[in-house]
Write a structure and sequence with these properties.
single chain; about 475 residues; alpha+beta; Neutral Protease, domain 2; 2 domains; binds tryptophan; binds zinc ion; protease; zinc; hydrolase; EC 3.4.11.2
């Protein structure tokens, strides 16, 4: 799904002109005739300039993944992407760092393609006129791509947790944010193009498999266990949850926090032997959903829960099923990931430089939870402020991929919201949160959209405050 193109920000237009000018000399030494020119254009992300294809709207991914040896990097896939062009496209370019593609079909017919593995692009060499839709099927088998995080000591994308005892206990899961989903799925890997997903996982008998959305089918044969999940509301590609391994499902009563009080189904997944202390925070998920939906409005998905993983990674807000490392199994982190279901997964980012919109709202939810527990929120806000004074801070729009998950995105972002709340009061702040979470500033938002929305709904003085928190190099006064 991609909303209608909006007038681009001036900064963005400037960048395109610059990119055009820089690309001209390169085009002069164009490749030999046998190599068709790569006439695709990435989305134009400020921090990830090669990701995605502009004017391509991936609407739905029908994913089939088969893993015969959980805990290794081996997998095979068949993915059918339903695509629409919002402008004439000379070819289709998907992001893919996965194994060799051996088969490509366009509406069922063979179609030429070229896989640039080092470049991470899979190009389907057929034009798609503006307004038209196509369905492209790709098959691949081999080893998932490896993508080191640019800052932290782990790899993004497909994770393999080996089985130390070699008794069939290995696990795999997806850690997509920001651009890791392309290590195992061919996708338009940018949050400005959220899509729906059908995920079918085939694993050895006795292995559990789960993904974002609702489970709609289970098929067991002597040789394989196959499960299908439907994610019917669009989500960014990085937020797709896929987990397989020796997981135990723990069901809980549904919670009436959906639209109009609709029931949200509840289930969590734990590796065998997960201690009670690690499981404890997940028992509070219903209460967390209640507190957050009071502030943010109806929960945006039909189901919610967590999967606990033993890997050493940050927690991740994978849609409908947060990915929770053992070390992150606290109510604070669970509140944070749950808040992302509204802020990030439902309202999605226009550009990675705007990631504070995700992290600031999710961090702010921690303070709302604090208050729900009857604790004074002031020391928490003061601690955030002190952290920023100690570590240094920056304007909220990130200028470099190393800033994506820094304390300015989290704590400064949260304090900007706290400043707004202090200025306008709780009732107006709650109305603002609900309207924003409902997509009234747009289903895909950038910092400028939020600022304009704050001016429109909370007035110019509130807008001026937010603007200082966004732009000022130094910290504005503590709210
Ligand atoms: N969005 C995650 C959270 O705050 C954190 C995260 C995702 C992250 N990907 C990352 C942190 C990569 C560091 C590096 O809940
Ligand atoms: Zn977060």
């Amino acid at each position: 799904m991609r909303p209608a193109a909006r007038p681009s920000r001036r900064a963005r237009r400037g960048r395109w002109l610059l990119a055009g000018a820089l690309l001209l000399p390169a085009a002069a030494q164009s490749p030999p005739a046998a190599e068709p020119a790569t006439r695709d254009r990435p989305v134009g992300d400020t921090l990830y300039p090669t990701l995605g294809q502009a004017d391509l709207d991936a609407r739905h991914y029908d994913v089939h993944l088969t893993v015969t040896q959980p805990g290794t990097r081996a997998l095979s896939g068949e993915v059918t992407v339903t695509l629409r062009a919002t402008r004439d496209l000379p070819l289709i370019s998907l992001d893919f760092l996965g194994p060799p593609v051996t088969f490509a079909r366009w509406d069922g017919q063979p179609v030429p393609y070229r896989q640039d593995r080092p470049g991470g692009k899979l190009r389907i060499l057929r034009a798609l006129p503006a307004g038209q839709q196509a369905s492209v099927t790709l098959r691949y088998a081999g080893v998932a791509g490896l993508l080191p995080d640019p800052v932290f000591p782990f790899t993004l994308g497909w994770q393999a947790v080996p089985d130390p005892l070699k008794v069939g206990g290995g696990a795999n899961f997806a850690f997509g944010e920001p651009d890791g989903t392309r290590t195992f799925l061919p996708v338009n890997d940018h949050p400005s193009d959220p899509a729906t997903f059908t995920v079918t996982l085939t694993v050895p008998p006795g292995t559990a498999a789960v993904a974002s959305g609702e489970r709609v089918r289970v098929t067991d044969t002597p040789g394989a266990h196959t499960v299908t999940f439907e994610q019917t509301r669009p989500i960014p590609t990085y937020a797709l949850a896929v987990h397989l391994g020796p997981l135990e499902e723990q069901g809980s009563p549904a919670v009436p926090v959906g639209e109009g009080g609709a029931a949200v189904a509840r289930r969590d997944y734990f590796p065998p032997g997960t201690p009670g202390a690690v499981r404890a925070p997940y028992r509070r998920t219903g209460e967390i959903l209640g507190v957050l939906s009071d502030w943010f409005g109806p929960f945006p998905f039909a189901t919610y829960g967590s999967v606990v993983v033993t890997a050493h990674l940050p927690a991740l807000e994978t849609a409908t099923l947060s990915t929770m490392p053992v070390a992150s199994s606290s109510d604070r982190v669970l509140v944070h990931e749950t808040a992302h279901q509204w802020f990030g997964n439902s309202v999605t980012l226009r550009d990675w430089s705007d990631v504070w919109l995700n992290e600031g709202f999710a961090t702010y939810a921690e303070l709302l939870w604090h208050e729900h527990l009857g604790q004074d929120p002031r020391p928490l806000a003061e601690a955030w402020y002190a952290t920023l004074q100690r570590r240094g801070t920056r304007p909220l729009v990130a200028t470099d991929a190393t800033e994506l998950f820094d304390s300015s995105a989290y704590q400064r972002g949260a304090l900007a919201l706290h400043a707004l709340r202090r200025q306008v009061g709780d009732p107006a702040f709650r109305r603002f949160l609900r309207a924003y979470a409902q997509g009234q500033a747009g289903p895909v938002v950038g910092t400028d959209d939020l600022l304009a929305f704050v001016r429109r709904t909370l007035g110019d003085p509130a807008g001026d405050t937010l603007q200082r928190w966004i732009r000022q190099p130094l910290l504005p006064p503590a709210p």
